[in-house]
Design brief:
About 40% of the residues lie in helices and about 10% in strands. It has about 600 residues and is α/β, with parallel strands linked by helices. β5, α14 and β6 form a beta-alpha-beta unit.
Length: about 600
């Protein structure tokens, strides 16, 4: 840990220099009046407020990092950007993290106390030539030191100012890079960036298509007599760690799950215990799951390019005359989901407004899962078939509370999250119990996943890559969609899987693969680390990529990424590096040009 803190000094220096730029300039300017008490009072307040602001970022990360697994960047407010109850949420967070707020103000007090210990003496000029020369040298010498600090301590012509990716230089894992970085540095380095940088055109469309199989087309399978309904459950924060049935293939000491109903359903489902998320926040989840568009440093849904029409489960379903709907029990517009549902083209959006009964409001985010899922069932009863619906639950979310009537009913486990998982699992049980009597139930395919993971207890899920471990399960009553598939799976695979299940006959673009197809497409997972790097994982290797080239390779069993194999590059590593480079090039090119419409060399 001490070694990581040492490596972090150059990043801290950059943050200190930038956050104190006004204070530094006001302190070194060659002017006799700089020692005047009024001037010094202004200098003090600038010093105290600027440092207080940037210090607060690290305190925010004390609470936020364990949920986001990412240092604060310019997009950290996107989580509440679309919330209508910002004041209520703010008051709630103040109460929950009151201890951090007290500690923060204590540090501000100590900062002011230490500053006041400095004595400022009036400038007495005996020789104006000597004063002018020394002031000139001091001023420009300080500017040179400022530039040196801002660049990260290097004046070499061949180098550039340090960025997030430089945190990976002296560490073994991206998780260690988060220790090296500081929240002030990551915010400063990402300000004003849209984080969708066009890649170099190194590959042709033909090379990318051949390697990534981006254009999908599935022949009619005849699996079902008529078009099945599709219901996609996006379960808030319910990572794979909590699902008992998805952990039976892993040797996790003293493992315990909290999803008895979902476990019972898994016995009659097609499950993917080796599934991963391609999102890390709720706002990332919707484009990732429903359109197969991952989000890296910034959510695609809140980017400059989110308003373009994209292929998704909605677009393919509507072409086959499906009625489509999206359900989310929070305030309409929460997390930007209403706007993005309109972009995807859902026929109807049902939120807290349509539910229209705030007696079931949880006090923070929206309607409790059990009554809202009952409402979902009543709406689906009125839908014409076939329909495609997506349901985003909310109760399994910080502040981790459940209805008072259920307190003590669910196992509280080791983490505040665990009883919320139990409650949402119970709400799903109730939904299925009442839905079994509906005409649409027998011909409905249910897909279960989560937007991202959350609090972890077991060391297995604290490993760097397993922080993205995600549930994926497909259920249809009295069907052949059963079994355990240990191949890699991810959010990207849901869109093509739905297209395959509903026998969509036309070619479409997707980076994922159908999980029910016989086509031999190599599975892979991709995501982003806060150190400015990406990772792509196949069945054998994990490749860490800085956006230009690979900077690490690890055996797929080395989920904590402790043994970098890059010094002994094999052909398989070279191929995976090229595949990751192709994906990133095609990803950024496609998003900026329009999914499916990018034309390159």
């Amino acid at each position: 840990m001490a070694e990581l803190c040492y490596y972090g000094l150059r990043f801290d220096n950059v943050a200190i220099v930038y956050s104190n730029i006004i204070f530094i300039l006001m302190s070194i300017i060659p002017w006799k009046k700089t020692t005047h008490p009024l001037y010094q009072k202004v200098v003090f307040w600038i010093y105290w407020l600027c440092n207080g602001f940037f210090l607060s970022l690290n305190f925010i990360d004390f609470a936020y990092y364990r949920f986001n697994q990412n240092r604060l960047m310019n997009n950290f407010l996107e989580v509440i950007e679309f919330e209508s109850n910002k004041i209520d949420l703010l008051l709630h967070f103040i109460w929950v993290y009151l201890h951090l707020i007290i500690l923060f103000f204590a540090m501000l007090y100590l900062l002011a106390l230490a500053y006041k210990k400095l004595k400022i003496y009036p400038i007495i000029i005996e020789n104006y030539w000597r004063y002018g020369l020394s002031s000139f040298v001091l001023f420009f010498g300080s500017i040179a030191l400022f530039v040196l600090g801002a660049r990260g301590g290097d004046f070499k012509k061949s180098t550039r100012p340090i960025t997030l990716i430089d945190a990976m230089d002296n560490v073994r894992t991206p998780q260690q890079a988060d220790v090296v970085l500081s929240s002030a540095f990551t915010l400063l380095k990402t300000l004003g960036q849209d984080n969708f940088n066009k890649s170099k055109n190194r590959f042709t469309n033909l090379e990318i298509e051949k390697e990534l199989n981006t254009i999908k087309v599935y022949s009619p399978s005849g699996r079902f007599e008529k078009k099945p309904n599709i219901v996609i459950f996006i379960l808030e924060s319910m990572g794979r760690e909590y699902w008992g049935a998805l952990n039976e293939t892993y040797d996790i000491p003293n493992y315990k799950g909290y999803t008895p109903f979902l476990d019972s359903l898994a016995r009659h489902s097609l499950i993917f215990p080796n599934g991963f998320a391609t999102s890390r926040k709720s706002i990332h989840g919707m484009p990732s799951i429903l359109a197969g568009i991952p989000s890296f440093e910034t959510s695609y849904a809140s980017s400059l390019y989110s308003r373009q029409k994209v292929g998704s489960v909605v677009s393919v379903a509507k072409e086959l005359d499906y009625q489509t709907s999206f359900f989310h029990g929070a305030a309409n517009g929460s997390m930007g989901l209403l706007g993005f549902s309109n972009i995807l083209g859902f026929d109807n959006y049902y939120g807290r407004t349509e539910f229209n009964n705030d007696l079931e409001f949880d006090g923070s985010w929206g309607i409790w899962d059990e009554p809202f899922l009952g409402y979902v069932k009543s709406v689906l009863d009125q839908q014409r078939t076939p329909f495609l619906s997506s349901v985003f639950t909310i109760t399994s979310h910080e502040p981790y509370v459940i209805p008072k009537d259920y307190e003590g009913k669910f196992d509280k486990g080791y983490l505040p999250m665990h009883q919320c998982v139990g409650y949402t699992d119970h709400a799903l049980r109730k939904f299925f119990e009442v839905s079994k009597t509906s005409d649409w139930f027998e011909n409905t395919i249910f897909i279960f996943t989560a937007d991202h993971s959350n609090q972890t207890h077991f060391p297995f899920y604290e490993k760097t890559v397993n922080r993205f471990a995600n549930p994926l399960m497909i259920f249809k009553s009295n069907s052949e969609l059963k079994g355990v598939d240990m191949k890699l799976a991810s959010h990207l695979d849901i869109f093509p899987t739905v297209a395959d299940l509903i026998d969509y006959p036309k070619p479409f673009k997707s980076w994922g693969r159908s999980l029910v197809s016989n086509q031999n497409h190599e599975p892979f997972v991709i995501n982003y680390f806060s150190g400015g790097s990406y990772f792509m994982m196949n069945e054998n290797l994990i490749c860490v990529h800085n956006g230009n080239n690979a900077i690490g390779f690890y055996n797929v069993k080395d989920k904590n990424m402790e043994n970098n194999l890059i010094r002994n590059k094999t052909q398989e590593m070279i191929d995976l590096e090229n595949k990751c480079s192709m994906f990133l090039e095609d990803y950024f090119e496609s998003l900026m040009s329009g999914i499916g419409s990018s034309q390159k060399k």
